[in-house]
Amino acid sequence: MTEPLLEVEGLTTQLGDEASPSRVVDGLDLQIASGETFALLGESGCGKSMTALSLMRLLPPGGRILSGGVRFAGTDLLRLTEAEMRRVRGGGMAMIFQEPQTSLNPVLTVGAQIAEAVRVHEGISQARIRERVVDLLRSVGISEPERRVEAYPHQLSGGMKQRVMIAMALAGDPRLLIADEPTTALDVTIQAQVLSLIKDLRRETGMAVLLITHDLGVVAETADRLAVMYAGQIVETAEVAEFFAGPAHPYSRKLMESLPSAEKRHGRLAMISGRVPTLDQAFQGCRFADRCDSVMPICRETVPEWHLLERGRRVRCHLWDTDVPPAFETSVDDESASGHSGVAAMSRDEAREPLLRAIDLKVHFPIHRGLFRRVVGQVKAVDGLSLDLHSGRTLALVGESGCGKTTAGKGILQLIRPTGGSVLYRDRDLVGLGHRKMRAYRKELQVIFQDPYASMNPRMLVGDVVGEGLQALGIEPSRAGRARRVAELLELVGMDPEAARRYPHEFSGGQRQRICIARALAVEPRLIVCDEPTSALDVSVQAQILNLLKDLQVRLGLSYLFITHNIAVVAYLAQEVAVMYLGRVVERGSVDEVLDDPRHPYTRALFSAVPSVAPGKRRAVIRLEGDMPSPSHPPQGCHFHPRCPLASSECARAYPPEIGLSDSHSARCFHLD
Amino acid sequence: MTPVLLWTDALIYLLLVIAIAFGLYAARHEHLRAPWRRVLRSRIGMATLIVLAGYASIAVLDSVHFRLKVDRPGGEPVYAPEVLSLFDLALSGLRERQEVTYSAPFATHLYVKEAVDLPGGGVTRAYPRLIHGGAHLADPAADRVGDILTRVLVGMLKGLLLWMAVVGALLWLSGRRRAESWRVTWAGWRSPGTEIPWTTALAVLGGLLVLGCVAGELAAEYHILGTDKVGEDVFYQTLKSVRTGLLIGTLTTLVMLPAAILLGIAAGYFRGWVDDLIQYLYTTLNSIPGVLLIAAAILMLQVYMSNHAESFSSLVERADLRLLFLCVILGVTSWTGLCRLLRGESLKLREADYVQASLALGVGHFTLITRHILPNVMHIVIITLVLDFSGLVLAEAVLSYVNIGVDPTMNSWGNMINSARLELARDPVVWWSLAAAFLFMFVLVLAANLFADVVRDAFDPRIRATR
Fold this sequence. Notes:
The complex is a heterodimer. Chain A is built from 23 helices and 24 strands.
């Protein structure tokens, strides 16, 4: 390795006031060579973003760099004046952020915003600026750049906005691009586009990329080297290939094991007990000691030093103190394997009669215009959705954002009044039932939402939150009976019953999601609609929740309608899959059939875009052009045909009928062979 | 004496009861207590709260009305026709020391020349001595300054003593509750970085007490803010105006609150035709010029009152009804702003996951609104109330100035400013009525605005998140 482009030594950053400072970055060392992609991996709150902001010297108020050195291309960044630093930002190092929606000014055209960046970094004449802006837009793969220059941010889709952000970052020809979760807010197909764009740009310009992410799959597909961060420190650095072949630090190992996948579906996912320690304390010994399975007495007393392994690989763990590499046992236990067969047995009995059937379900939102609020159009969020869910089984409803899967879930629960079609729960139609009549079915159908922070009233005690259904449906009218039941429920989801007397904000995301599950379980439902229940959670916490959901299914015989965009979770949890595109199910079948042999071109593209950690399993990414069309103006004929690689003239004429491929597997496409 | 319960008095008592009940309820609920604790921990919040409490105690004292028994030997008891308040009793000296006409602050002579009988016969035009102001001085020109200074000193001394007594009582109470010596408590209060800014609180309290005692000491012999055209003490008038100002500021919100909350939440929660109807209602109401509506209503009331003079037993009662009516009509014109805010917030909350989860659990609409929506819009209600308060106090002044405010017989800053119109036009200028009204109103509105800022910061969830 030649002289590194960026060299960070002992960087320590502190946040908060003097009274209770937290060291969000503590003694961080890293080196990035020119032209390489270096990934900084970690769960939320471990200090990855603060590291990036420290490098750019853009810390929020109250943040300061206490010690350490940042050498970038031979200059010490921490000694530069603010004026000199401004030249480095954008010119030497550029940064793109997670949320493209909020990073662009909505009242300026994207051309003007890129031109601003160009003007700052290159003293070129007014006339040539536009040329350069168009060049930049073209280089980030935006079609018709001459026209897009005049577009406002709201006229662009999320993926396009992120491209514009990248174009702005490229304006100064940076030598290092810091990408802070650049694809977290994007869908997988768009994520694949943006990641391959970053890869191409790196190859063309030779810049280095510091990729900050929590997604192991993204790291595996994009980066050359990586560093794993935990509680403000780097615990392991390695080459990507070696890391995924066998992580050295127990934390990295656990992270890998807690990833859901098809192979793990018959067991439980590994969990990391406890939570990331808060950073406002003084640490003694290893920061991971409290959650580590291989903890030794020495871990709690002495801070582990760096151990240099082969090929520049370094790890910070006492297990490597001896010369013998430690042996890890895989901690997937088979305790629930028997339970799983129980599910299979039960499902065989009841397989004939679906518990829930949606037939041609439609949810349209009218668009009102003008003084008299005439209806001028319909947003067809769900447009003819049909699915069957059998008792004790899990049906995963998969799709990208905007395809109507959440609306479908709410339509099934009658939280939104469907426009047409029917929802049969045990052969009784729920559509059109009034608020009062529907109450009889509320007990049977429950829901868990995506954002555990928004799904509990912040002004209610946890006990009241969980007991709300018991009270509303008159199951436990007495206060004492309710309290007893709430305590049982909290225990069922693995929480301390004491939690009932506390407020939701005192709990972490994973704990809140458990409370939400307890609330849904309170009325003893038969079916739970899980609307992306783990997508706001970290990998290790996601594993806890998925295990819990699986256990509960076995114990209580629940059925789940699992709405998600995460294919790995589907493979782990579901028995059946339905893939949605623009308000309709394009393919459905059992999980093995659909995941192993996707037949619809959209399903294929979707699955191929999912980044995978297993090097052997990677498929060639089928790149989809453009974005999902607006549901207010769906394309004629097959909704997918404008983006479909197989499209023919037939596709534009009519929507393809459902074609059965086996008893359970069917898809809606003219080109199935 | 026999108590007299005016309409506004009853409403003030109701407001006090609501406030105390809410205080007791909030004290047991952490999420309600936390923002108020943040208010108390801010220096400005504490200081302005004490100033506002000073005003409020005047208003409350001034709201206990009764008629005094007239002493008459034998026979059944007879009550004086005059309705007085506790506050009037406390200031009976000020109330009764009437001069002939204008006199300047601290003056010993009238502000206008009058015909004075010379001792040796004949008449001359001179500034006569005041009947009460500085009447105890033998030689006003020589003694006045010295006398005023002594009184200031005595007043300060009394104020300090009173302050020490209050601090001592507070120390004793706090020490007993925490079972520690008063010295420890005192040291704790004085150490920097205490949670509650005790030093600020005690300093403001001390300042108020000293000022009050000095004013009381001086007012015993002088008209410290002069007298008005009919010789009434301006200081007394200004103090009496406090109740009017506070009433307008608080009762108006009390009147408009139910409508704003009910309609705002209903519009946002039920949407559809309910929303259309309520939006139509407040858009229409909002497009009627407020001042015209108020003028029309007040003029109608005036006509009604003069036609039914027999149904009012006293002038005070009549003025009181007009004040109440003014509050109502101000409330009717001012609920739309809050209603609009609440509609927007309810629209947003309705889609919140926890509301959806409740719906999925089969919770009824009414329970859902009271349990989930109302508590989560309460911060908006409180912020709006506090912000509106100062605006309403000022609105009263403006309305009285154009003669559609409170009854002309009622003491109010607006009426004082209205009469100042003529006083400022005459030569030499009579400035003290206007200055006194301005000073008291300014202090109240400033304190209310600063307090509102603190309350908003404490309640606004977005501001809290960035700290």
